[in-house]
Design a protein that fits this description.
There is one protein chain. The chain has helices spanning 10-27, 36-134, 138-146, 177-186, 198-208. By secondary structure, it is mainly alpha-helical. The protein folds into two domains: 10-156, no CATH class; 175-217, no CATH class. α2 crosses α3 (138-146). The longest helix has 99 residues, at 36-134. 2% of the residues are buried.
């Protein structure tokens, strides 16, 4: 059963936020710390702002939590049939792709078989043409070679039902990162093929405190101010 809850109106939200809008307006102008007194004032205001943000977050949750609970209840109602339908969809997509790939394998195998036959015909024709040329029959030799049929392109019948398509896209998979890095070092125009793993570099910076030099990387210390209520 779906939970029924009262959705807060814009008037409800504005009434609850009057106090915090006044505080935000008062503290909005930028400040400059130029000495001990302004330092202490900025620190006091920072703690006050943090406390107001905490109260504001609590107030927001009192209005959003009932909506979140109702949303979760609705999602739970739909989750089981949706997951079963997606599973059924995936199995059929896989079956269709497997069939399509098998047909493509057969097509290529048939083309390979025809290439082998054509190669045999070419070898026989070349041998026959060589004998004709030995007897001075150049035109007949050329005619024998020209008579060898090219390998036909094998096209399977399109049995795909209406509404079903199988778009295909070429993709890349890195199988040797060292080789790729070496290629990019020699071809800088492909530099966008690699992306630095910033989280890993940040972890290295924290563990070494920036005391290790890594070519192409700048380690720096980032500081922030926190306030306790």
């Amino acid at each position: 059963m779906v939970t029924t809850t009262k959705i807060p109106t814009q008037a409800d939200a504005q009434q609850a936020l009057v106090k915090y809008e006044d505080i935000a307006t008062t503290l909005a102008p930028a400040v400059t710390v130029s000495g001990p007194e302004s330092y202490d004032l900025a620190a006091f205001e920072l703690r006050s702002i943090k406390a107001s943000l905490g109260e504001l977050d609590t107030l927001r949750k009192t209005m959003t939590q009932p909506l979140d609970q109702a949303k979760r209840a609705i999602l739970n109602l739909f989750s089981l049939p949706e997951s079963r339908l997606k599973q059924a969809q995936d199995t059929r997509r896989r079956a269709i792709l497997d069939y399509d790939q098998e047909q493509e394998r057969k097509r290529r195998a048939e083309e390979a078989r025809l290439r082998d036959l054509q190669r045999m015909d070419e070898e026989k024709a070349e041998a026959k043409a060589a004998k004709l040329r030995e007897r001075g029959k150049e035109e007949q030799a050329d005619a024998v070679l020209a008579a060898v049929a090219p390998v036909p392109t094998v096209v399977l019948a399109d049995r795909r039902p209406s509404g079903i398509s199988i778009p295909k896209t070429w993709k890349a998979d890195v199988i040797d990162l060292s080789a790729l890095i070496s290629h990019i070092a020699n071809n800088p125009e492909h530099g966008d093929w690699l992306e630095a793993k910033i989280p890993a570099l940040n972890a290295f910076a924290r563990s070494t405190k920036g005391n290790v030099n890594i070519p192409g990387v700048r380690f720096y210390e980032d500081a922030s101010v926190s306030a306790r209520g």
